[in-house]
Design goal:
This protein is α+β, with helices and mostly antiparallel strands. The chain is about 20% helix and about 30% strand. The chain has a five-stranded antiparallel beta sheet. A two-stranded antiparallel ribbon has the order 1-2. A hairpin with a 2-residue loop joins β7 and β8. The longest helix has 24 residues. The protein starts with a helix and ends in a 10-residue tail after the last strand. About 20% of the residues are buried.
């Protein structure tokens, strides 16, 4: 009797019906809200990153730039750097190459300042050719920075001698070196012609030293770029 009554009660209770999972529809408001939240979060994140990113594209020297030369596409390349408040200091890569002449030396790998390019009239140096020991010329490259020392020549009893060297020009920039300077040897007896850029007011003095057969020596500064040993 008890078992029969329990079976009757179980039969009378409603049984749950299995429901199939349905694919979400674009009409489902919860799905639409979820997508909108994702889009808003992505846009907000991108905006924050953009506002915090102070990087700009500027020009960087691919090789040493010397006063008096015009800038070509092969002389520079574009780099992206972080700038806080100095973005206007350097030439942007988004504009055409600057016209005019380089008015101050720019080393290889340096960012190109706006103040480094101007009119030809602003170039305050002249190139003077001096003949130096070939072993020294072989170490120099365009853009090397040197001090120019001059030992005045004097004659005594038919024998040439030289006075104590004096520094005539400080931090002159080398603009040209012999292309075959690396083949010169110490004992070759053939001097090499190196072009150095000196202030206009020093040109006459240095030319006078050259024409009077004074001994001219170029001493690279501590930070000067030099030719790497091969």
């Amino acid at each position: 009797m008890g078992e029969t009554r329990e079976r009757s009660v179980e039969a009378a209770l409603p049984r749950p019906t299995a429901q199939r999972l349905q694919k979400p529809s674009w009409r489902d408001s919860r799905l639409v809200i979820g997508v909108l939240l994702i889009v808003l979060a992505t846009v907000a994140g991108a905006t924050v990153i953009q506002r915090c990113d102070h990087s700009v594209e500027v020009l960087q020297a691919s090789r040493a730039l010397v006063p008096g030369q015009a800038i070509t596409a092969s002389d520079v390349h574009t780099v992206r750097v972080r700038m806080d408040h100095a973005g206007g200091t350097y030439l942007p890569a988004t504009r055409e190459l600057p016209r005019g002449k380089v008015i101050r030396a720019v080393g290889k790998g340096e960012l190109l300042p706006r103040t480094a390019v101007g009119s030809p009239a602003q170039v305050a140096v002249k190139a003077v050719s001096v003949r130096v020991d070939p072993s020294l010329a072989a170490t120099l490259v365009p853009g090397s920075v040197v001090d120019v020392w001059v030992s005045a020549k004097k004659e005594a009893a038919g024998t040439a001698s030289y006075d104590k060297p004096l520094r005539t020009v400080e931090r002159a920039v080398v603009s040209r070196v012999p292309q075959d300077g690396g083949r010169f040897g110490i004992g070759s007896g053939q001097d090499a012609a190196v072009h150095v850029l000196v202030p206009s007011e020093k040109v006459a003095e240095l030319i006078g030293a050259v024409t009077s057969e004074s001994k001219v020596t170029l001493i690279p500064t501590a930070e000067s770029p030099l030719r790497s040993a091969s």
